[in-house]
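queue> holo job accepted (DQA)
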Amino acid sequence: MLRILVIHGPNLNLLGLREPEIYGATTLAEIDDLLAERAKELGVEIETVQSNHEGVILDRIASAVGRFDGIVINPAAWTHTSVALRDAIKGSGLPAVEVHLSNIHAREPFRQQSLVAPVCIGQVSGFGPESYLLGLEGLCRYLSRGDRSSPGAPAGQEVES
Ligand code: DQA
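queue> job finished
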C-alpha cells in the first residue's frame, strides 16, 4: 500500500479563523478528515503533520525517506522564502506535490513565486480544501504509473530530477 506524508506549513493551524475571505471557513481538522476519507477511497495510507517550526518539517521530510512513497505539502509562507525546504524536498528524492488553498498566482507579487515548485512534480493552487484532495490524487496516480513520467508530460518523457 502506498504511504503518503501530508505536510501543512506555518499558520495553517489557524484555518477557519484566519482570513476566511481568502482561506475559507474549513478548519485544518476538517481538511485532515477529508484527506483521510479520500485516502481510504484511493486505498493509500496517509500521515498528516502541521508545524509552525521549519526545522520540525525539515526533520520530518528527512525521516520520511524509506518510510513514505511521496509527499503532499502546503508549504504556506515558506513557499516563498525557504531554500532549506526546497533543498529538503529535493534531497529526499521523494516525489512531492505542492498545494495551496488560494491561487497564489493571482495574489501579491511576493506570493507568485514558489521556491518549492521546481522540485515538485506538480502544483495545485486555488481550489480551497479540494487542492489537497486533487494533489493527493495526482500523486497517487503518478506513483501508480510504473514509468513515473510527469503527469503533464507527453508519454515517455521523464521528470527531471
Ligand atoms: C497558502 C498561500 C501562502 O502564500 C500563504 O502564506 C499561506 C497559505 C495557501 O494555502 O493558499 O499561508 O499556502
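queue> Residues 11, 74, 76-77, 79, 100-102, 104, 111 surround DQA (CB under 6 Å).
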